Every structure is written in structure tokens, then in C-alpha cells.
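Known limitations

C-alpha cells in this collection are predictions and should be treated as such. Users comparing against experimental data should check residue numbering before alignment. To illustrate the layout, the record for TAP42-like protein is reproduced below. The input appears on top and the generated C-alpha cells appear beneath it.
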Amino acid sequence: MDIENQPQENKSLRELFDLAENFRRKIENGSTELLAECISLYEKCHYLSRKLSLFSNNEGIDEISTSEIRFLLIDYYIAELLDKNTTSNRSSAILSSRNLFVSFLTLCENYTLLTNSDKALFNYLNSNETNNEGYINRISDVSRREEKIQRYKREKELNKNISSFLKNPSKDENDLRKHFLEVVQLAIFKSLQSIEQLDLELKMIEISKDKDQDPANNCHRTEAENNIHSTLKTKNNFQKDNPLLDKHGKPLRPFTIVAKREQLKNHVFGPDHNLPTMSIDEYLKEEAKKGNILSNKQIPQNKKEIDQDNIEEIDIEMYKARKWDEFKEENPKGWGNRANRG
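Generated C-alpha cells:
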């Protein structure tokens, strides 16, 4: 018989948990319509686990069977799903989710699954004293940064191990037990992070409510809106000839605060034109460095030197000179320039 089609009243804790896990994976893939039903299944698992007294404060983690380790995560999964439930009463959802995260961490602490740093952070977050800075003052900024780095590396390693096991599952009990404990350890990290985020979100909601309920704040907001409306309405009526401020110091028209005050101040008694920033010699040196000025050695020599011992080259040059002389005799200077004739 299919587990999903079987009446939930007749299902065991393991069957309910497997069904809830199946729904949770579908929700992670985008099937949010199963959210309420999945929460209901986990809540039934929570009830059965308490009824069966699966966990006790007088036993260690080694006394829990491998198949029952994953039931430690029931409260964690409910808290995660409640956090995804975007209801109108967000504050109530935050408090419910936070309490379940705390319940999960308390259960893990009873089984000594929390490290010393996890326990210190959990005690700080779970403290009722809002001004308690025991955890913050316990270590320096450098140590706290190093601790965050170590936690990030450990979390990354756990994610890698869990993904590797899911791709290549093993039926060996030791491997399966190690996998379940790593999932619990990863849930501990995420629970601590979630509590911090939920506390911050709850604080922001309370601040927002206080601002909305404060009549003085509403009065100031209305006055500011009226001032803005008045400014926008009359901005085209301002004249530059009107005074900038009234006798009480209130601005009468828009004005611009110049950021280059000192620069403008220095130009008051200066010349109208820009003064040179370097001498001519310095400019020529810079241009020479850039290769924009050719030296005498770099000027190409167009005239080819004739070897006086080479009779053929001498005859060729002499022939060219004679041809040029004949051309000049046949074409006197100005012969083709008709525009200069009187």
C-alpha cells in the first residue's frame, strides 16, 4: 500500500517522517502549496516522538539508534517551514520559529552535540537579558572573525560530505550514522544563524511599529510632506533678485552649496587666464621623452652619397644633372604661371 495514500492515523512515526521529508523536498523545489500539510506532518511527528519518549536527558548520543538520530531534526524542520510561511502576522511566525530553533538546539545540547563556540553563542542568543554582551566581550574582534571563518569552513565541509553521500548512498550503518550526525551538525549551524536573523527582523518590525504609532512622527511626516508640496508648487515663482533668507534665517528660494569653495576663493584675485604649469624647457624635455621631437641624428638623410671611385654612379648623376639643366632651359621660371602675367 502506498504510504501517501494510507490514512495518517494508521502511520508510524517513521512513515510520517518519511512522508514529511518527501513533501519538504518538493517544497524546496518550488511546491509551496504543500507547506501547510508538511508542517502538519512534522507536528504529528513531534507529538509521537514526545509520546514515545524517544529522547531523554539521561542518555548520550551513542545510546540513540542510527535510524532514530534523524528524529532529532523534527523541531528544526518545523522552524524552517514556519520561517518560510509568509503570513500577515509575521511577528507571531518569527517567535514560533525561533522557539522551535531554541528547542532543537536545547535537545542537541543535552546530547553534547554543540561545540564550545556553538554553546557560547547559543547561550548568548537564548539569554533573556537584552543588554547581555557576555559572548561579544568574551573574545576579541580578531578571535571572533577567526571563529566565523572556522565555522564557515566546517559548514562548507559538511555540505560537501552530505552531498557526496546523497549522490552515492551507503547501506553501511557506520556511514549512515555519520551522515545523520553531519546533517544534525549542519542544522545546528543554520539554527544559530537563523536565530540571529530572526532577532534582527523582529527588532526591525518593532521599530517600524513604534514609528507608525508615534503621533509626533506622523505630525513631522505630514509637515514635511506639506513643505515639499509647497516647494514643488512654487519653485517656478522664485526670482533671483529676491533675498535668499528671511529675517528668521529661513530660505526663501532654492540655492546651491558650492563644493569648490576654496578653489573659487583662490581665483578671486588671480588672473582671468590659466597660468602655465611648466617652463618651455621642461615642456620640450617632456616632449622629447615621449619621442615627439627628432634630434639631428634621427633626421633621415634623403640625399644618397656618391662613391667617387664608382664611374657608373658618377655618369648616372651627371646624366640626371644635364637632363635637369635642359628642362630648365626649355621651361623658364614662371612660364606656366599665367596668372602672374600683366
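For this record: The chain has a mean pLDDT of 79. Residues 173-213 form the longest helix (41 residues). Please report discrepancies through the issue tracker.
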